[in-house]
Amino acid sequence: MLLGCGDLEKGIAFVEQKLGCRPASRRAPRRGSRNALLSLGERRYLEVIAPDPAQPRSADVRGLYQLDAPG
Q1: Is the Cβ–Cβ distance between 13 and 70 less than 8 Å?
Q2: Which of 3, 27, 37, 44 has its CA 20 to 30 A from that of 9?
């Protein structure tokens, strides 16, 4: 399951508020994004994905920086 957002910390807070669990964050080098993962069971997870401000905006091929709210 994938949850896109314009700001990773806001996406993590959204998931934590709704589910009571905090996803763990990590970077995706050269993909223009960073993400946070939350295990939902064996081989299932929720991925919160957002643009990485440390990478050029042009690297964000998904256009995540345009998202105003998690969705």
Answers
A1: no
A2: 44
Tell me: pLDDT of 35 over 70.
Answer: yes
Measured between alpha carbons, how far is 48 from 5 in angstroms, rounded to an integer? 7
- Burial (Cβ within 10 Å: 0-12, 13-18, ≥19) of residue 47: middle
| DSSP-derived 3-state class of residue 24 | strand
Strand ranges (E), the chain: 2-4, 24-28, 33-41, 44-51
pTM to 2 decimal places: 0.78
* Bridge-based pairing state of the strands 44-51 and 24-28: unpaired
